[in-house]
């Protein structure tokens, strides 16, 4: 039996009215799924274009944060001790806002949620400029916290692309939005020099120019979505799903009207009774943890071996290429061969990455190859896992589930990043990669249980 065939029986496991909310290729009576309607397809194409454009524009800020955040923190505080504050505060901001953003989407739609997220991140960027001008560490921390919301908004945009997608195109739609992040992540780190020129003209500290530009870009992304993301893809998909449920006599999901606490309880209950959703949730969280833990310490390891900042920069660029550039291919593979199969390929890529980096012995070529594969394994896991999570969750509960997954992903990754330093100090870069390789075992083990359950249901 092929991998896609193994997955089909499990598609409805623990999911209420999966066919009605777009979990299958068509309705039980043989008619096409509502996502295939001409009007819906037209809205979906426009939605993906808008989301991709917003990712390109707003993603510039995410790229600036990854390259210049620690430098700005060190410059404002006049101490290397505070350099890590940027990463910590931005990660905390992304983690804290995941569920509230999803709850806002659940109540008001993707348009309100995503535009609010980008605008809040832009305000954080303007606060960072002010922090640099007055030399305030407290303002710096607040600005970084709000600026990190841009990362959470960037992540949740991918789910909006899946709201109206046909079941057999869900991963591809999601992956196009993920790919769009590539452009912003490349442009952002290169804004240091143009930003410094603008800052000099405005009599501001040099590093603030890049953050000023990124805040303008995030504001533009917010306006783009607020003005033109109509009809709202989530609200339209929910209405279509409710119409289908009314036609078939299925029960309505209470999630859309639940409180935030009630939504989280429903999310927990669904994860307990829906193995496919639980598997996708676990795979996404652990994949992000593996990526962040190893990526955080790779520049430190390379510096210890005497590599220049230019070489380190090229290595990180290759890593970002692996993360984003091939996501449309990954999306096509996920839709063609199944989400479960694609995520298992991602785990194999993680193992190959750990072997190359862990056994590099200071070899730049091996570290570059290992970090590229680290990003590629993340892409396989995130794209397929996010699509599977959307498929395995009823329409009314999807925003809450997606927000919970992103929050867990950022929190666990932050813990992994904080532990990666002591772990490398105690066991070396090879030991850190070995630990990362071990983290694929829960995903592989869970996948076997999932496949076995699917085979039993077909017997």
What does this structure look like?
This protein has 459 residues and is an all-alpha fold. It folds into 2 domains: 221 residues, Up-down Bundle (Growth Hormone, Chain: A), CATH 1.20.1250; 220 residues, Growth Hormone, Chain: A, CATH 1.20.1250. Helices cover 80% and strands 0% of the residues. It is built from 18 helices and no strands. The N terminus is likely disordered.
SS elements, strand count: 0
CATH superfamily of the largest domain: MFS general substrate transporter like domains
Rg over CA atoms, rounded to whole Å, is 22 Å
The largest sheet is:
none
Average pLDDT confidence is: 85
CATH topology (fold) name of the largest domain = Growth Hormone, Chain: A
Looking at the structure, what is the overall shape? globular
- The arrangement of helices and strands along the chain is HHHHHHHHHHHHHHHHHH
Strand content: under 5%
The residue fraction in helices comes out at over 70%
Please specify the SSE layout and strand pairing:
Elements: H1 3-10, H2 38-77, H3 83-108, H4 110-134, H5 137-147, H6 149-160, H7 170-187, H8 192-201, H9 208-228, H10 233-248, H11 260-273, H12 275-304, H13 309-325, H14 327-337, H15 339-358, H16 364-391, H17 398-438, H18 441-458
Helix pairs in contact: 1-18, 2-3, 2-4, 2-5, 2-6, 2-7, 2-9, 3-4, 3-5, 3-6, 3-17, 4-5, 4-6, 4-9, 6-7, 6-17, 7-13, 7-14, 7-16, 8-9, 11-12, 12-13, 12-16, 12-17, 12-18, 13-16, 14-15, 14-16, 15-16, 15-17
């Amino acid at each position: 039996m092929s991998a896609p065939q193994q997955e089909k029986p499990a598609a409805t496991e623990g999911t209420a009215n999966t066919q009605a909310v777009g979990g299958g290729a068509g309705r039980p009576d043989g008619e096409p799924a509502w996502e295939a309607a001409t009007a819906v397809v037209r809205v979906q194409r426009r939605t993906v274009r808008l989301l991709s454009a917003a990712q390109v524009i707003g993603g510039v800020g995410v790229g600036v944060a990854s390259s210049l955040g620690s430098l700005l923190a060190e410059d404002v505080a006049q101490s290397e001790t505070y350099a890590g504050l940027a990463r910590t505060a931005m990660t905390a901001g992304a983690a804290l806002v995941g569920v509230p953003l999803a709850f806002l989407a659940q109540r008001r739609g993707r348009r309100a949620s995503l535009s609010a997220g980008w605008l809040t991140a832009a305000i954080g960027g303007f606060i960072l400029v002010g922090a640099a001008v007055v030399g305030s560490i407290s303002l710096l921390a607040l600005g970084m916290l709000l600026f990190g919301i841009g990362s959470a908004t960037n992540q949740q945009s991918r789910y909006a692309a899946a709201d109206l997608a046909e079941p057999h195109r869900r991963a591809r739609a999601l992956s196009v939005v993920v790919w769009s992040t590539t452009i912003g992540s490349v442009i952002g780190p290169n804004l240091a020099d143009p930003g410094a020129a603008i800052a000099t003209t405005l009599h501001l500290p040099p590093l603030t120019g890049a953050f000023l530009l990124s805040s303008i870009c995030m504001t533009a992304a917010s306006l783009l979505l607020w003005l033109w993301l109509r009809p709202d893809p989530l609200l339209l998909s929910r209405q279509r799903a409710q119409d289908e449920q009314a036609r078939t006599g299925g029960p309505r999901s209470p999630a859309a009207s639940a409180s935030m606490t009630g939504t989280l309880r429903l999310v927990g209950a669904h994860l307990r009774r829906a193995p496919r959703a639980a598997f996708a949730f676990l795979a996404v969280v652990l994949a992000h943890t593996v990526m962040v833990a190893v990526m955080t310490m790779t520049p430190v390891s390379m510096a210890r071996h005497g590599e220049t900042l230019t070489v380190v920069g090229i290595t990180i660029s290759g890593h970002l290429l692996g993360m984003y550039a091939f996501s449309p291919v990954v999306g096509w593979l996920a839709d063609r061969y199944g989400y479960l199969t694609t995520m298992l390929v991602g785990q194999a890529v993680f193992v190959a990455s750990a072997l190359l980096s862990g056994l590099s012995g200071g070899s730049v070529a091996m570290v570059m190859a290992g970090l590229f594969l680290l990003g590629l394994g993340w892409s396989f896991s995130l794209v397929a896992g996010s699509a599977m999570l959307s498929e395995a969750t009823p329409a009314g509960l999807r925003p809450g589930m997606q927000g919970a997954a992103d929050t867990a992903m950022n929190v666990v990754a932050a813990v992994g990043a904080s532990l990666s330093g002591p772990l490398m100090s105690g066991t070396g870069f090879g030991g850190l990669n070995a630990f990362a390789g071990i983290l694929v075992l829960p995903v592989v083990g869970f996948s076997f249980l999932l496949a076995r359950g699917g085979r039993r249901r077909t017997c």
